[in-house]
Amino acid sequence: MKSENLEHLEAIQDIRLMMKKSTRFLSLSGLSGVCAGIFALAGSGIAYVYFQNILKTYATANGQSLIPVSETDIVLHFILIAFGVLALSIITAFYFSNRKAKRMGQKLFDHSGIRVLINLSIPLIAGGIFCLALLYYNAVAFIGPVMLLFYGMALINASKYTYDDIRYLGLCEIILGLVNAFNIGHSLLYWAIGFGVLHIVYGTVMWFKYERKG
Questions:
Q1: Nearest of 27, 60, 44 to residue 200 by alpha carbon
Q2: CA 148/CA 80 separation, integer angstroms
Q3: Most Cβ neighbours (<10 Å): which of 4, 33, 60, 95?
Q4: Residue 4, domain member (yes or no)
Q5: 16 found inside a domain
Q6: Domain of 52?
Q7: Confidence of residue 24 (pLDDT cuts 50, 70, 90)
């Protein structure tokens, strides 16, 4: 009797596992999160050095009352750095997730993967357009907090179709963005923490939790 109950329990667990695999995108790799965090920290370092060089030039320029670089040029440099970080993160995310999907015998872009992509993209696109509006109205200082907030909302929105752990990363990004909104003078630091440190921590946890055994 006990052996029959145990068999039924194992069968139920197998069914639950099959349903979870069919409805959730489980090919997301923790290594891609670690790489994204490293790229973000590198990008933050480049932006910091660039801005410090501008301040140094301003401090040593004799007879000049303005920084010898326009604010538009500074913003454009930061945007280029951000796009570079994003491009590298997407490439590594595709590589590691595709490798994990092949190892699991699954397709990377199945119906669950497409749902994750759609639910992730909607808040990100809305946030990107809102950042353009802030840039248009010269409210550059709030772009950093807005990026963190909308990214956090995108993660929470997509977490319904992938690992639940992503929801906690999203909550941390939102909290960090709200704190940054009241301390806009240090947006680069919050950006480095949110997109750099948190991604490395999240990716490491995900790798140890889901991939190390595999």
A1: 44
A2: 18
A3: 33
A4: no
A5: no
A6: 31-211
A7: low
